[in-house]
Amino acid sequence: MPRAESTQASVHQPDPGPVRPTQEDPVAAAGSELIGGPLGRRALLGTSWWTPVRVVALVAIGMFALGLVQKAPCYHSAWFFGASSQYTKACYSDIPHLYQGRGFSDGLVPYFDKLPGDMPYLEYPVLTGVFMEVASWLTPHSGSIQHQERWYWMVNAGMLMACAAVIAVCVVRTHARRPWDGLLVALAPAFVLTATINWDLLAVALTAAAMLMWSRGRSLAFGVLLGLATAAKLYPVLLLAPLLFLCWRAGRWREYGRALAGAVVAWLVVNLPVLAFAREGWWQFYRFSHDRGVDFGSFWLIWAQNSSHPPSTDFVNTTATLLVVLCFLGIAALTLTAPRRPRFAQLAFLAVAAFILTNKVYSPQYVLWLVPLAVLARPKWRDFLIWQACEVAYYLGIWMYLAYTTSGDAHKGLPADGYHWAIAVHLAGTLYLCAVVVRDILLPDRDVVRRAGDDDPSGGVLDGAEDVFVLGGAARPAHHAAHAEVAQVRWGSRPVHAPEDRSP
Fold it and tell me: Where does this protein reside within or beyond the cell (predicted)?
């Protein structure tokens, strides 16, 4: 196809400085009244010690600590003395249970030593297994098993808190002109509630760091970090697909090649030693993911529990894969036909959300995967909080359902029909946020990031780049494209646009 004219915004005003969320977002403005009103000029410009990075990091740590307090009932008793009470008090965590259940209390080496019971080897990707093993080294192996499990949870909580701070800082720095959007991550209620259920924050932190590197134009570092994130959890590899579509539209094949090479090499460096010397243990994660049946949180569960002929595992595996492929084809079509090239964060969010919506299981901590991507894709407080409210409802719903199933004849909690409504709320909230992101792509004037004067601050080399391959209506020059040309240079991580020439 012949080279198409750029459909990117062609007229940029001089950089107006940091975006003030309390001036552009009515929900943020109303919320700021609780702490004394909108931020002043010194805070916005970072001229005091209280820079956005420090403020957001401290808020993230403080909120994480509140999440630890929320788990206190389980820490003292519910993990050990009552199966249903850890659900009725909504403080369940996999971490203390797997300390003994996966052999860490006995000094067994993940992937190499076979476990007693139904699970022969650790069912987590290698880098997460390393994280779990390091935490076990730091756990005192003395006293009762309950004492050790409490210590193991606290050690992991400390390490995961560091991951949470990294995530918040990376989001602040990724959109250089929108540093206060990081507060959405720090204050996200579902983030606080689910942070210590499992070890997902490790992969989320590596993915957030990868996004930061791409925004700085460091494609190889992006690839390496994304490969490490994929070695901790499978979902980060999905980001390579939307990035491919964007680089295709912009003709940035060299940068994409470096990112892909970095990801593959980093993943192999972590995985090959275990694959070579503990093949059976290494395969356990992939075997478990394939063989597990329909599970909590998915629309598949609603189908299975309301059908006299529930779908088989093979059918669900095949159909879910086809649905994901169809979603990604839709994302590719959206990328190549949109009137203006979508932002990377928008497509990254849609890609991960598509996987979550079609997967056969949705554990409550999976919301962590989406939180930083949602903030970068749609930093609008109203929409973000609507979605978060749906996720909190699901968080409470799954624990109440498990309480119902484990409380015997007492039937404390939420029956299956009620839990199905909780799943529906989660699905509706995620679909709602996907819908507004797609709307922003099709109507870029509605995109709050671009309304503030940016093109793609998380896009790195894509920021302000020309299009070289587009389809359909996007191939026609935008109505505003003929008025001016963009003069753009790179200075650090921020694009600096030449001011308009107002001479006669």
Answer: Cell membrane
Q: Under 8 Å CB-to-CB from 240, ≥6 apart: which residues?
A: 226, 259, 260, 263
Helical H runs in 338-478?
Answer: 344-358, 367-377, 381-406, 416-442, 448-451
Q: Residue 47 is encoded by which pair of tokens? A: 């001229």
Asked if 105 and 99 count as a contact pair (C-beta separation under 8 A), the reply is yes
Give yes or no for a contact between 164 and 329, defined as CB atoms under 8 angstroms apart: no
DSSP label at 491?
E
CA atoms within 13 A on the CB side of 422: 25
Confidence check: pLDDT of 481 > 50 = no
Q: Are 219 and 259 within 8 A, CB to CB?
A: yes
Checking if the pLDDT of 332 tops 60, the result is yes
Half-sphere exposure of 439 (CA within 13 A, CB side): 10
At residue 241, what is the residue type? A
Element (H, E) at 67: helix 52-70
Tell the burial category of 504 from Cβ atoms under 10 Å away from its Cβ (0-12, 13-18, 19+).
exposed
Contact 211, 170 (CB under 8 A): yes
Q: Cα dihedral sign for 174, 176, 178, 184?
A: positive
Count other C-beta atoms under 10 Å from residue 176's C-beta: 19
Q: Is 287 helix (H, G, I), strand (E, B) or coil?
A: helix
Does 221 have pLDDT greater than 70? yes
Residue 11 — very low, low, confident or very high, per pLDDT cuts 50/70/90? very low
- Taking residues 320-346, what's their average pLDDT? 97
Arithmetic mean of pLDDT, 377-382 = 94
Q: Where are the beta strands (DSSP E) in 233-366?
A: none
- For residue 479, name the pLDDT band (cuts at 50, 70, 90): very low
Give the least confident one: 55-64, 186-195, 474-483. Answer: 474-483
pLDDT exceeds cutoff 80 at 257: yes
- C-alpha span between 367 and 26 (Å, rounded): 25
Are the CB atoms for 86 and 92 separated by under 8 Å?
Answer: yes
- Helix runs in 216-252, H state only: 219-232, 240-250
pTM: 0.89
Q: Which H or E run contains 366?
A: none
Give Cα separations from 318 to 312, 315, 359, 498 (angstroms). 10, 5, 11, 51
Question: Could you tell me which of 204, 229, 226 has the C-alpha nearest to residue 213?
Answer: 226
As a whole number, mean pLDDT of residues 84-89 equals 90
pLDDT the model gives residue 466:
93
Which DSSP category does 311 fall into?
P
Residue 1 exposed, middle or buried by CB count within 10 Å (0-12, 13-18, 19+): exposed
